[in-house]
Amino acid sequence: MTGPGGGGGRWDGSVVWITGASSGIGAALARALAERGAQLVLSARNPERLAAVRAACARPEAHLVVPLDLADPETLGPAAERALAHRGRIDVLILNAAVSQRALARDTLPAVDRRILETNFLGPVVLTKAVLPAMLARRVGHLVVVSSLAAKVPVAGSSSYVASKHALHGFFDTLRAEVWRDGLRVTLVCPGAVRTAISLHALRGDGSRHGVMDPAQDSGMAPEICALAILDAVERGKDEVLIAGRARWLVHLKRLFPGLYHRGTRAAVARRERGTSAAVAQRERGT
Asked: Is residue 44 within 8 Å of 33, Cβ to Cβ?
């Protein structure tokens, strides 16, 4: 079986661009793909962390580091030009970068909503459009979009994050219908809790860093396991895959018993509000 870009193995010789490659799922994907012979373009905001990921990959000299910020659309076109010039093509674009949220909608500033939507939705769309013409010209390409279980089951305290994931599904499901005759594939990936730093870097309502490892992330699946499941879905040409372990029952609960699911959501909001009130009271007692 040949890879997306040809070669003797499933990934051997393929050019794969990964955003959010500096840690977590993105870094795990980079290591796994490098072992399989892929030539990588690694992107995230932190050049030093990207360099460390590249050094940890097999054949580091074969991989290119292209720092970028998906929330800065003016830089994405030049980044795509550099990535395409690296090997003359992009066979697989893995859109993995995202920023999460830990605040109720009423407590979230519009600027924070905008930052989340720009990073999680608009940036990936702009980057896709930058590489799409080259894929269409060759009639070869696979777009892999790392969404979230939150696209299926909204999570209280993450309204803009959830909205951005819903938007990804709307755009890329439609794009799939438009480009399948041109030989392009689109895979949407919906992971549940994965042991990454996403909650540490999540934004509070005022835009500050959450800085707390959520229990769900702390006890979640290893990013290496998630990465292998993603690669398996891509290799099998899946349109969409849910990687959520036992949490997948939430998807079925919402679909089959929406009233029960929404009652649970209301209870979660109430627990969050009680926890916030208790924290405020504790701070006031300490002052």
From this structure: no
Indicate the pTM of the whole model.
0.87
Q: How far is the C-alpha of 213 from the C-alpha of 8, rounded, in Å?
A: 42
Structure tokens at 146: 């790392």
Give the pLDDT of the chain (287 residues) as one tens digit per residue: 334 544 447 899 999 999 999 999 999 999 999 999 999 999 999 999 999 999 999 999 999 999 999 999 999 999 999 999 999 999 999 999 999 999 999 999 999 999 999 999 999 999 999 999 999 999 999 999 999 999 998 888 999 999 999 999 999 999 999 999 999 999 999 999 999 999 999 999 999 999 999 888 888 999 999 999 999 999 999 999 999 876 666 766 667 667 767 677 666 655 655 554 444 345 446 54
Six-digit token string for 144: 């892999």
**Phi-psi region for residue 66, left (φ > 0), alpha (ψ -120 to 50) or beta?**
beta
63: nearest Cα among 17, 100, 96: 17
Residue 112, token pair as written in the block: 């924070």
> Token digits for 164?
């951005």
Alpha carbon distance 144, 195 (integer Å):
20
Best CA proximity match to 202, nearest among 114, 104, 100: 100
Residue 241 near residue 233 (C-beta atoms within 8 A): yes
Q: Which residues touch 141 (CB under 8 Å, ≥6 apart)? A: 4, 90, 91, 92, 93, 131, 132, 134, 135, 183, 184, 185
How far apart CA 149 and CA 235 sit, in angstroms, is 21
Give 134-151 as a DSSP string. HHHHHT-EEEEEE--GGG
For residues 226 and 28, the answer to whether their CB atoms sit within 8 Å is: yes
Q: Is 161 a catalytic residue?
A: yes
Burial of 186 per CB tally in 10 Å (0-12, 13-18, 19+): buried
Q: Which of 11, 121, 161, 172 is catalytic?
A: 161
